[in-house]
Amino acid sequence: MRRLFVLVLVALSLAGCANAEPQADGLRIENCGNTEVFPEPPKRVVSLNQHATEILLALGLGDRLVGTAYPDDLAPPASVAAAYARVPLLADQYPSYERILEAEPDLVVGGYSSAFDETEGRSRKTFEDNGIRTLLLSESCAANPAGMDTLLSDIAMFGEVLGLQENARQVAAGIQQRVRAVEERLAGAEPVDVFAYDSGEQAAFTLGGNGVGNDALRRAGGRNVFGDVPKVFADVSWEQVAARAPRAIVLVDYLAAPVQSKQAYLTGHPLAAGTPAVREQRFSTIPLVELTEGIRFPDAVERLARDLHGA
């Protein structure tokens, strides 16, 4: 166990997203600018975004997960679907601070930084002032582009915090194995220029270069045409979309912005319609949860590889 713990600390340090140090008063975690000390593994956890919830369930948190919120789709992976269905849904979007307190958590996990919105009364400090620890997935605060290494680092961190180190090792190994298999199949393939369309009409809300989704595209043999934008997601102009001439388009699908009308909108758009992707009707649909930091990362890589290269 000591050897595993040392390896975890090395992985966290290399990833640059989180750091864990054993202290006399417990496990000390440096996470997104906050220091959290865990004298013992949390017993009651609330997770405020679906992709974070799926990570915790994959690690085997089970009945210790006492609440979730803000689902992005209605189809969790089969490996966690039954457990996900048993977790109380606190709200369809973000619950109030008071609603979260009703679940009596000793740890609140956020998938996006918006989970801890100070203007909504849910800042990390507000929770901590009430004796509730908080953790945030590192994609939301990484100073450098996040990717699979960020995800693996967070899985190791949660494994340490929750006392589920062996489960974390197995989950991480499974992710790496699946992604490596795709990369081996695509060795030597010419990357395909891709535009990811999330939403927007006045401007296009798209995938930038700092998120896990950009890394999924890269590993699947794609080249994000807005990979030079230093954000996880960003607004870009339609003139930029046209100028960068994507050869394929990823339509991002989630409950708040379903995909049904997006392809039709792009097909009828005076600028987007002229891109090679739209002219050739080369579209791929990807759930938002697959393009964010979570256990569906290999699903995204496999799906994109099939759609872009037939591999």
TrEMBL record:
Specify the domain of life of the species encoding this protein: Bacteria
Query: Which InterPro entries does this entry report, sorted A to Z?
Result: ABC_Transporter_SBP, ABC_transptr_periplasmic_BD
Keywords attached to this Swiss-Prot or TrEMBL record, sorted alphabetically, are:
Signal
Where does the Fe/B12 periplasmic-binding domain lie?
A: 44-311
Show the stretches that span the lipid bilayer.
none
- Signal peptide positions are 1-20
Q: Which family does it belong to?
A: Belongs to the bacterial solute-binding protein 8 family.
Q: What is this protein called?
A: Iron complex transport system substrate-binding protein
Classification of source organism: Bacteria, Bacillati, Actinomycetota, Actinomycetes, Pseudonocardiales
